[in-house]
Amino acid sequence: MKMTGPWIVTFLYGLLVATLVQADLRPPAVLNLGPEVIKEHLTQALRDHDAAAILHQLPLISAVQERSGSMPLLNSLARSFLRFIIWMKVTSANILQLAVHPSNYDQELIVRIPLDMVAGLNTPLVKTMVQFQMNTEIQALIRVEKSKSGPTRLNLSECSSSSNTLRLSLLNKLSFTLNSLANNVMNLLVPALPQMVKNHLCPVIQQAFNDVYDDFLRLATAPIALSPGALDFSLLSPAIQDSNIVFNLKAKLLDSQARVTKWFNSSVASQMETTPDEAPFSLLVRQDLVNAIVDTLIPKEELVILLRFVIPNVARQLQADINEINAEAANKLGPTQMVKIATYSGPQIMLDEGGATAAQNIILEVFPTNTDVRPFFSLGIEANYEARFFTEGDRLMLNFHNISIERIKLMVSDIKLFSPETMKGTLTTILENTLLPNENGQLRTGIPMPMVKALGYEKFVWSVNKGALKLTPDSSENPGSPPW
Q1: Where is each Lipid-binding serum glycoprotein N-terminal domain found (predicted)?
Q2: Which one, of 107, 175, 92, lies nearest residue 145 by Cα?
Q3: Which of 92, 316, 353, 477 sits at a 20 to 30 Å CA gap from 468?
Q4: 82: left (phi over 0), alpha (psi -120 to 50) or beta
């Protein structure tokens, strides 16, 4: 006997349509990277590019000598002093804590990179090295830029160091004359140093940001293994919002043979709120994509249960319920009395700020024995669950609890017409002992989330937002160094 029909098709699709409220279009997934993550990874990239070593190589002596030739007001003593400088270079250099701020313009971030350097010079005129400290700041802009030859991406530009941020001070206690001569050297460096920093360090900063952006993009679009198949992300568009870098993502589901089974883009209305918050980073997954993942993990199937062997007390209760309807039918229930439970999709998750629930539409049939091909009756059931998202290690886990029957309809009956509400308690127990453990068993492997460790965190938490599932790092954890 076929278990499908016009009623069940309407029943299966009606629930989800009824629960979705039209809203603004949102991407299937959004990765928000806050300023803390941006500056940590840019700092690490500058270390990887040995940016501090670039500062040690600044050509200070040639810059001072070139600048002195264009300053006729220098006295003869100062010129003699400059001619006798035999060595001058940066002896120590540190890149201090970066800062990332929103700009006054849309789609733009300001990156500030403070530099702390100590330079020294030697001259036969002085027995000891003359040392002075140089503090300055590089400022650059991160913008969304469209390319004629490629996709939209984020670029770092307008990298510069202003003389307004430059501070120089002597570290040695010198004579009045030598102080004056050393000050002349520092005065010559004031206009020269910002240009040197721009020429030598800004290309390294730009390359470091390009590497960070490419790593962020690989991280955002890395496939997530499912069992079976995989979830594959690709970039819809990058954006800048507040102090965050935002990757709007589209997605596709792949089967075990890497064939695309379903596409997701921004053409579906969603209630998902994507505005960045104070979290170092967050990943938001739209409700319809969550449901598609659950469908992949819990495919449609048919369960066959011999009640007297599996849950004998429930078998006796079901027989008592049927006896109230038709005593002759109840007497036909044999030792192999059988229940078939057919699902036509995975549980449909509803995400709201109050938590997550799930609804699933089921066809349940009761047979007197396992040799019968025609059931006593067929029921259409809408079952509701409590859906609990949690983490185990680096995996997202989902379990269903507290099953209940929201609606029940008698579809076919060979024993007489009856109200199935009378056996709702028994049917709920059957589903609780058979369908629920089966579906939770299919979810037991969870979904790996390597993104968290790649961003330098060990632990993460999931929260339920309206229309979306949200991943954020555990607020009690201090981030580690990124493994790039």
Answers
A1: 38-258
A2: 107
A3: 477
A4: alpha
CA triple 10-11-13, angle to 5 deg: 70
Assign 3-state DSSP to the chain and report helix, strand, coil percentages, each to 5: 35, 40, 30
- Whether 352 is covered by a domain: the verdict is yes
Which pair of tokens denotes residue 366? 């009761």
What H or E segment, with its residue span, contains residue 41?
helix 35-48
Q: What is the pLDDT of residues 86-117, one digit of tens each?
A: 888 999 999 999 999 999 888 899 999 999 99
Judged on CB neighbours under 10 Å (0-12, 13-18, 19+), 151 is exposed
Residues 20 and 53 in one domain: no
Contact by Cβ (8 Å): 262, 253 = yes
Label the pairing between strands 108-123 and 99-102.
antiparallel
Q: Is residue 149 part of a domain?
A: yes
The predicted-structure confidence for 200-218, as pLDDT tens digits, reads as follows 999 999 999 999 999 999 9
d(C-alpha 69, C-alpha 410), whole Å: 100
d(C-alpha 218, C-alpha 37), whole Å: 15
Residue 214: inside a domain: no
Distance CA 65, CA 58 (A): 14
Which burial class, exposed, middle or buried, applies to 169 when counting CB atoms under 10 A from its CB (0-12, 13-18, 19+)? exposed
What are the structure tokens assigned to 74, written together? 């220098």
- 280 touches 34 (CB < 8 A): yes
- Looking at the chain, the whole-number percentage of residues with pLDDT higher than 70 is 89
The whole-angstrom separation of Cα 161 and Cα 159 is 7
CB contact at 8 A, 154 and 143: yes
On whether the CB atoms of residues 30 and 205 are closer than 8 A, the answer is no
Which residue carries 């060990």 as its tokens?
458
Which helix (H) or strand (E) covers residue 133, if one does? strand 126-145
Say whether both 395 and 461 belong to one domain. yes
In a domain, 111, yes or no: yes
Identify the burial level of 255 via C-beta atoms within 10 angstroms of its C-beta, where 0-12 means exposed, 13-18 middle and 19 or more buried: middle
Burial of 146 (0-12, 13-18, 19+ CB in 10 A): exposed
Domain that holds residue 129: 35-202
CA angle 344, 345, 349 (to 5 degrees): 145
pLDDT tens, position by position, 404-457 = 999 999 999 999 999 999 999 999 999 999 999 999 999 999 999 988 888 888
Per the DSSP assignment, residues forming a β-bridge with 157 are 141
